[in-house]
Write a structure and sequence with these properties.
GO molecular function: peroxiredoxin activity
Shape: globular
Distance between the termini: 27 Å
CATH class: Mainly Alpha
Organism: Roseibium marinum
Order of helices and strands: HHHHH
InterPro entries: AhpD-like (IPR029032), AhpD_core (IPR004675), CMD-like (IPR003779)
Protein name: AhpD family alkylhydroperoxidase
Pfam family, one: CMD
Length: 118
């Protein structure tokens, strides 16, 4: 499915995720703690970790992952040129399906970068 309005998609996904978090608070709390620990700057900075997450989202063909990590990447200083290189690595690792989802990731980045607060 090609998404034409990434902001609307994120809003819809946020609403759905809010319901899941409300319905499974312990799991959601655990996942939130895992996300915070995994993305916290350490040997790798937060931008690098967001770029890795975006690459995994491309290879896993996860629209929600693309949206969330394309929105977060510019908040951590990622530039469009870096997104394109991430897409290249994802295509290398994931083949043709990653090429298609790479195009979706770029569209998500372009559509969400201006609203990311970066």
């Amino acid at each position: 499915m090609a998404i034409s309005d990434w902001t609307a998609f994120v809003d819809q996904t946020d609403a759905r995720m809010a319901e899941v978090r409300k319905s499974m608070p312990d799991v959601a709390k655990g996942f939130g703690a895992l996300a915070a620990a995994a993305t916290k700057p350490g040997a790798l900075d937060a931008k690098t970790k967001e770029l890795i997450a975006l690459a995994i989202g491309i290879t896993a063909r996860c629209d929600g992952c693309l949206a969330y990590h394309a929105r977060a990447a510019p908040r951590h200083g990622a530039r469009r040129e870096e997104i394109l290189e991430v897409i290249g690595v994802a295509v290398y690792m994931g083949g043709g399906p990653s090429m298609i989802y790479g195009a979706e990731a770029l569209a998500a980045f372009d559509g969400l970068a201006e609203t990311s607060g970066a």
